[in-house]
From TrEMBL:
Residues 5-109 form the HIT domain. InterPro entries: HIT-like, HIT-like_sf. This is HIT family protein. It is an enzyme of class 2 (transferase). One of its GO terms (molecular function) is methyltransferase activity. The keyword Transport does not apply. Pfam families: HIT. A motif (Histidine triad motif) lies at residues 94-98. One of its GO terms (biological process) is methylation.
Length: 142
């Protein structure tokens, strides 16, 4: 099987973990179902690439612009004190940025946010709450 046939993002597997917010120039923005950090999003490159250095300069520039747009939207909408970004990909190697609003005096301030809240500590919302957050974010991205 090719990499894309087993890829978390190229297949529908991701749909159990996040909801699409919108498409940007070269990426798609998703709201993570787990919302311990309110507004947490993932910005996924539309092409299946696994390393930033594999992208031609123009595509990398567009992707960084998309990530920056999302970060600016989240910072404004959720009054974040600082935006955090994470790119790992050991397991799901398709390029994606975790973009996470952080607040002083809140969990993990001064430390990396945790990718998973841990069993029983996850914060899941109702469909209406997810839709409300998606609308709050997308108004900054139009
Ligand atoms: Zn992929």
């Amino acid at each position: 099987m090719s990499d894309t046939q087993t890829c978390f993002y190229c297949t529908d597997e991701y749909k159990g973990y996040m909801k699409e917010i919108c498409k940007l120039e070269v990426s798609t923005v998703y709201l993570n179902n787990e919302q311990e950090y309110l507004g947490r999003c993932t910005v996924v490159l539309n092409d299946h690439k696994t390393e930033l250095f594999q992208l031609e300069e123009e595509l990398r520039g567009k992707y960084m612009r998309d990530v920056a747009r999302v970060a600016a939207a989240l910072k404004q909408e959720f009054a974040a004190d600082k935006m955090n970004y994470a790119v790992y990909g050991d397991i799901d190697s398709h390029l994606h940025f975790h973009v996470v609003p952080k607040h002083k005096h809140s969990k993990n301030w001064g430390w990396p946010f945790e990718l998973t809240a841990g069993e029983g500590n996850e914060k899941f919302l109702t469909n209406e709450e997810y839709q409300s957050i998606i609308e709050r974010i997308v108004q900054h991205l139009r």
